Amino acid sequence: MRRFATLIETLDATNKTNKKVDALAQYFKEVPKKDALWAIALLSHRRPSRPVTTTLMRAWAAELAALPEWLFEESYHIVGDLAETIALLVQKERKGNPPSLNKCILEIIALKPKSEEEKKEYIVNQWKSLSHFERFVFNKILTGGFRIGVSQKLMTRALSKAIDVDETIIAHRLMGQWSPQTTTFEQLILHPNPEDQISQPYPFFLAHPVEESVFFEKEEASVWHIEHKWDGMRAQLILRKGKHFLWSRGEELITDKFPELEVLKEHLPEGTVLDGELIPFKNGSIGNFQDLQKRIGRKTVSKKLQEDIPIVLMAYDLLEFEGQDLRQQPLKKRQEKLAVLLNHYKCSESPLLLSEVYRFENWEAVRTERGQATQKRSEGLMLKHRESPYGVGRKKGHWWKWKSDPKSIDAVLTYAMRGHGRRSNLYTDYTFALWNNGELVTFAKAYSGLTDAEIKKLDQFIKKNTLDRFGPVRQVKPEMVFEIAFEGIAPSSRHKSGIAVRFPRISRWRHDKKIEAANSLDDLKELLP
């Protein structure tokens, strides 16, 4: 535990990639393999189940720090991180050796079925015995909030350096569902059993936003495969050993959420792995992302739900065929094989479609196709070099995304809430409304897009023009108009406005407009595809 806390402190103290890699590699070389495996799990967001609520942790910490709960809560709001707040306020250190990382986590896991008093006794004793940064890390393990600027790719690079195994091989071995409770460092990293890996997906290859001002001057359009960027859920379908598995990009096994894909194991060759996008598809038309969320959010997917919101996998890459890894083959060859495979498998009710690939001789033609994105129910275009291998993670150069220009609408600020951390004394989270029959109706929340100077100016207005308070939220006198940009729009029965927008953000402060000139819900509905 002490060495892991020292590692986290070192990682937190630098923004230099090489220093982080060196610190991680040294840690992996020196510590017992059980500790190394738990460190890998924590840094790849595979934390143990939380044994205690943060409400109880806040109450116990306030009691130990001899602070009234309201003062602890104010401190928490200013700091913005519960683990750090407790580490700062609970100054009860005593000398002693903390348990190893493995032992500490197993003790935390064992807390789950215990009584509240037993949990309190264990956690408070740990707070008293640990040093400041050890206490911080202990709290992070309890709350599951490890975000310290260490990506999966960086950790994989460090592990590769420590054990001298190729980085791409390690990245593949770390994919899928595993836990230090059910495997060992040897079984997972050093010498995995192929039979244990039949469900394992490949690391996803990700795209960068295209840099228009540079890209189109340097590159020839003819060497790029152009595809539509479908507004769905990225997934890999795996068919091995007579079974099928479906993985999301977030490494979540979602096979049971989409049972209609099971039929594919009877028609596609064993040892096939497809990369594609899950999209709602009913009566020959692509649906919207909100429909897909209804499928994802259900514990049980009924026949009726499958009939109401049928889905397909829009396939655009073939990563494995008949057990052979194709990722190092050029994209053009992988897509040719994919087209032949899907052409061979055809049926009237197929849950599998082939994403169309376009080739253009000039960028003006590509731009014209991008203009068709809304009509084709996509988010824009993907630009993939025809010679590109299938890489690991977000590697620049081969795959780019060129999203459609965002939609926008002018809305009125109606509510505001304070931010966290360095912005905890400022109102930075905003709620916006549109006109509907003479009344302002909430339609979106946004917290990004303003400069620091604009935030301070708006904060002063909010504090001077508060109409009412609801806990941390202030109702604001409706006087300010902002242009709100967003990526997608769809009908929604869950929202008061009847409309849901995706990724809303503030694009500019409309000082030139009075609230009467703000848009209406009818204006917003006109933007529906």
Describe it for me?
By secondary structure, this protein is an alpha+beta fold. It has three domains: 2-143, Orthogonal Bundle (DNA ligase i, domain 1); 205-403, DNA ligase/mRNA capping enzyme (D-amino Acid Aminotransferase, Chain A, domain 1), CATH 3.30.470; 407-525, Nucleic acid-binding proteins (OB fold (Dihydrolipoamide Acetyltransferase, E2P)). Helices cover 36% and strands 24% of the residues. The radius of gyration is 26 Å and the shape is globular.
Count up the helices: 19
CATH architecture of the largest domain: 2-Layer Sandwich
**Helical percentage:** 25-40%
SSE class: alpha+beta
Keywords:
single chain, 529 residues, DNA ligase i, domain 1, D-amino Acid Aminotransferase, Chain A, domain 1, 7-stranded antiparallel beta sheet, 19 helices, 36% helix, globular
Q: What does this entry show, briefly?
A:
By secondary structure, this protein is of the alpha+beta class.
Topology diagram in text:
Elements: H1 2-12, H2 17-30, H3 33-43, H4 54-64, H5 69-79, H6 82-89, H7 101-110, H8 116-129, H9 132-143, H10 152-163, H11 167-173, H12 185-190, E1 205-206, E2 208-209, H13 212-218, E3 224-230, E4 233-240, E5 243-248, E6 272-282, E7 285-286, H14 289-296, H15 303-308, E8 311-321, E9 324-325, H16 331-344, E10 352-354, H17 363-370, E11 378-385, E12 393-394, E13 399-403, E14 407-418, E15 427-436, E16 439-446, H18 452-464, E17 466-470, E18 473-476, E19 481-486, E20 488-491, E21 499-502, E22 505-509, H19 521-525
Parallel strand pairs: 1-12, 2-13, 8-10
Antiparallel strand pairs: 3-11, 4-5, 4-6, 6-7, 6-8, 8-9, 11-13, 14-15, 14-18, 14-19, 15-16, 17-18, 19-22, 20-21
Helix pairs in contact: 1-2, 1-9, 2-10, 4-5, 5-6, 6-9, 10-11
